[in-house]
Fold Prolyl oligopeptidase family serine peptidase.
Amino acid sequence: MSEKTLKVSPYGTWTSELTTEVLNRRSFRLSQVRVSGDDTYWVETRSAQEGRNVLLRRRMDGRTEEVLPMTPDSELVDVRTKVHDYGGKAYTVIDNLIVVSHGGDGCLYKFDLDNPSAGLRRLTPKVAYRFADMTVDPVRGVVFAVLEDHTGAQSVANKLVSVPLDGSAARESSNIKVLWNEDDFVASPALSNAGEFLAFITWNRPQMNWNQAALHVAPLTFEGDFADHMVLLDDPEVSVTQPRWSLDDNLIHVDDSSGWANLYRTEGFVGANTAQGIASGDWKKNLRTRALHPSQKAFSAPEWRLGLHSYDNLDHDHLVAGWSEDGHFALGAIRLDNGQLETWETGWAPAGNVCCDDGRVVLLADSEQEPASIVQILDAKATVIRRAIESPLPKEDISSPQFLTWKNTDGSVCHGFFFVPTSASFKGPKRDKPPLIVTVHDGPTSANRAGLNLERQYWTNRGFAVLDVNFRGSTGYGRAYRDCLLGNWGIYDVDDVISGVRMLIEQGKVDKDKIAIRGSSTGATTALLAAAKSDLFTAVCSRHGICDLENVRDHAHKFASEYLGALLGATEDDDPKWKDRSPITWADQISASTLFIHGTDDPIVPVDQVRQMAQALQANGTTVESAEFTGEGHRLAKASSIGGSLQRELDFYRQVWGLKKA
């Protein structure tokens, strides 16, 4: 449609084919991409099935099918783990054998694709155990896994264990062998190809695993016990993640000792697991570690969910890896002998796992024109296997990102993406400027991405501008950028958001009287504090937002029990920062109309906390709306909830700003 035929209508009033019904009907979340031989596996989180996680397999001939049968108790399998409460890697597959964690009872099950009539067989007892991060050892007939033990009356214990594949531990829990339980947390068990060594990482409170973690290696006996053990890397200022073995059994890992999450290679394991070498300790003496490609690139990210997999073996001489650099994501190959990096121009940006088997690369990726998709790269050709959503928008309707960098009032550098209103059918009046919706990511150690996000396009296609802020503390810009938020959460992030908005106002890109800020979880905390500190905002949307930090601290699960304190720089419970940076303390300073969206069963942020915040705002005369969704937790999972919340948010902004649908 040409410029002359566009209908002129006020910004924020445009209609769009991208309705909440379309988003719900066509979308699901993709995760946990794996490859095994010619088959590709992944998990789909289906909002139409109340958020059930389904394991799918695509064969080389293109057939795609749900893999797992019902449990022996006639339940549909929910591929889910609750380890750390955030979950992560909930299945593994090797040679047509699948081991999976079922969210319904927390047990491990196995399913043999070569013997489907045997059905799903339970491997662990029905007690308060949670399992994740599984790795199968087919020779010893066990699966290594992270066990989170909730049977204790007072505390939760995290252990590295091996579980027999014969099902004996389902009848007798003592058959689960504990290999390591000396740290608060353990993750990422990685078995060498020859089956001789097991690598894993550990960390302890008050650290999070992206702040400090240790890399361990243990030679294994024939029975699967530790014959010995060593800590390969343990530095109080260094985080290590993603241990994985090359095809020649060199140990690869990622650490940020340089200030960036770079890849490292340790040689010397081949032939080292001998009786004499173990007895004398000589197996440790010939290990040599070196950086593969030292650079200001991030080859990993904070591992909130277990099972991060941003690189894999391409062949005996190369790794295939994804990385980020200044907000841009890329994919390429790295030589193992000299670290030479080759960037692949595929048109896709890694957005999750990167996997490979016999030269066939499969990854979760997106682009500025394509939503999150499972993409296969074979013989230099990229093919989409599965899209998270089939977009109804033509390219003319898609708003592309403008990469922004600006300076805060103290001279520090901030990053973000700006999206202008874009429609193939509408344009705004010549002298008008669009309303702005500022999006604050959660974590707060995650980051906004530039790839196609149809929820973002939901706004831009209706005439709203969007600013996604990657404030100080976001990942992908080096450890120093991320760590500077420690002790300064509620200050630096808020200042970065406000300075970004002021920049757009000064540049004449947005309507200064129509600015909203929205965030989820910790992102909502930042949004509410920004509204308290600045009168730039006339509307706020808090999605399962933390309003009372002391309340969340007192109910925190083990994994994040000391995380908020580190972000605040508060080591004691009576530190005044707990109150000073809680939005509820500043409720009398918030004049912007506020919408709360929350699940009634949220275990992280109890709904009563949000109700108290709403009452405090109302007592100050602030306009407040609340949308509670029955049965939902710390994220909305049901299609009706997701669609209903988005429509409620749109109606809220239009009402606040007096905008009527075109």
The chain has a mean pLDDT of 96. Residues 309 and 353 are 5 Å apart (CA to CA). The domain at 3-18+392-657 is CATH 3.40.50.1820 (Rossmann fold). The longest strand covers residues 129-137.
